[in-house]
Amino acid sequence: MRKIIPVLLLAVAACATAKKETPVAEAPPPAPVIQAVAPKAPPPVIPAARACQGDAECTSGQLCLQSRCEAITSTTAACDAISTHFEFDSSTVRSDDFTVLQRAARCLQARPTTKVRIEGNCDARGTTAYNVALGQRRAAASQKYLIDLGVPANRTSTVSYGKEKPRCTEETEACWATNRRDDLLNPSVSLAAIERQ
């Protein structure tokens, strides 16, 4: 038994030494907290007004104004006073006025509550009765063109002033040509607005 005790003592000592030498594993440091940051939204892109040479190059709710496509609003002056002109003793819409009437139709389609009054006018030559009838035919021709472009008939009205509302009173061909016209007016706009054009 004498031999067993020293061996046991050595074994106990070895175990005690082994316990002291075995390092205690330390807990790992906490992982850094990573917060997800939402990327900043880019500022809204406001489309630049597109360059144009005519209304047909713009979308349906726009007009080409000062060579830029601009949205038609309730305050777009270009929609409130539009004129077409006629040859002497004629009620046929001139081909160079097709784009003018197309602009009027575009304005009316973009402003669904707006109505237009088409005022037929004539130059000073001819009788009053003849010119009133001619002015009515001119107003009806412009009205038909607008209706053909999709403007509802109930949003248009016509009136003839014959030779009663001249813009010019000189007795020259240039003056008479100015007076042979239809004025397409938003009824809330005065004739003074069209005369400033």
Characterise this structure.
With 197 residues, the chain is an alpha+beta fold. The protein has a domain at 79-195: 60s Ribosomal Protein L30, Chain: A. 32% of the residues lie in helices and 16% in strands. It contains five helices and six strands, in the order αβββαβαβαβα. It has helices at 4-21, 98-110, 128-148, 173-179, 191-195, and strands at residues 62-65, 68-71, 81-85, 116-121, 156-162, 181-185. The protein has a four-stranded mixed β-sheet with strand order 3-6-4-5. The protein has a two-stranded antiparallel ribbon with strand order 1-2. α2 (98-110) crosses α3. The longest helix has 21 residues, at 128-148. The protein is rod-shaped, with a radius of gyration of 43 Å. Mean pLDDT is 83; it is low at 190-197.
Give the termini separation: 131 Å
Which strand-content bin applies to the residues?
15-25%
Fourth CATH level, the homologous superfamily of one domain = OmpA-like domain
Q: What about the largest sheet?
A: 4 strands, mixed
Find the structural class using helix and strand composition. Answer: alpha+beta
Top CATH class of one domain = Alpha Beta
Radius of gyration, CA atoms, in whole angstroms: 43 Å
Poorly predicted regions: 190-197
What name does the CATH topology of one domain carry?
Answer: 60s Ribosomal Protein L30, Chain: A
Bulk shape: rod-shaped
The number of strands is: 6
Q: Based on the coordinates given, report the CATH architecture of one domain.
A: 2-Layer Sandwich
Order of helices and strands: HEEEHEHEHEH
Mean pLDDT: 83
* Helix content bin: 25-40%
